[in-house]
Design goal:
The chain has helices at residues 5-11, 21-30, 43-50, 86-95, 107-111, 142-157, and strands at 74-78, 101-105, 133-135, 182-183, 188-189. The chain is α/β, with parallel strands linked by helices and 209 residues long.
Length: 209
């Protein structure tokens, strides 16, 4: 049932707020994100700085960094994801409570960054786990992390919990855990989780004479 915006506006000055149960749930979730306490490389320093007094990440309800994945619902992938570390990151993600979200912070976490051509660096954590927000930069400043956090809050506030377009965690058929890659002879096996990472093939056009 749709809420009459005119009625909601008339009741608000009297201290009566009319909203949907879905909006109330999303408001609570977006206002109480609990990030997991770990960092991978130099981006973690910027993540730590965002929690300090100058930037005060606590203003947005995300100051409770948890050392256990079972008590966290936000993964900040802050830094370079090596292929040796990638299986552990996926394993930590699988242990997090639902609903859970991922912010890829910095060029390394998004695409491998300046180490993209290295044999030992994963070219983006989105190959194995779903990423909700990407924050470019090398490293991005604390303000950029706060902007990404606000973007995530906005995304959560608009989630659909029922119907055909419901989000993954509200869908009984949605995937809660993703395969953990294994160390192969020369690379991770599989090289990517094809359930979530299926980019269009790159077509190289021949240069004109």
């Amino acid at each position: 049932m749709a809420i009459d915006p005119k009625l909601a506006g008339e009741l608000k000055p009297a201290g009566i707020h009319v909203t949907s149960f879905e909006s109330l749930i999303n408001w609570g979730r977006s206002s109480s994100l609990w990030p997991m306490q770990f960092g991978l490389a130099c981006c973690a320093i910027e993540m730590i700085a965002a929690t300090m007094a100058k930037y005060d990440m606590a203003r947005f309800g995300a100051e409770v960094f948890r050392p256990s994945p079972r008590q966290a619902d936000l993964m900040l992938v802050a830094g370079t994801v090596t292929k040796k570390m990638a299986p552990l990151v996926v394993r930590l993600y699988n242990q997090m409570a639902e609903p859970k979200y991922v912010i890829a912070m910095g060029a390394c976490a998004i695409s491998g960054g300046p180490f993209k051509q290295g044999y030992n660096v994963l070219k983006g954590i989105d190959r194995y786990i779903p990423v909700d927000i990407v924050i470019p930069g090398c490293p991005p400043r604390p303000e950029a992390l706060l902007d990404g956090l606000l973007a995530l809050r906005k995304k959560i506030a608009g989630e659909k919990l029922i119907g055909d377009h419901r989000v993954r965690h509200a869908d009984p058929k949605g995937t809660a855990e993703f395969p953990v890659p294994e160390y192969g002879a020369h690379d991770l096996q599989p090289a990517a989780n094809r359930e979530i990472w299926n980019p269009d093939p790159v077509v190289h056009e021949e240069a004109a004479d």
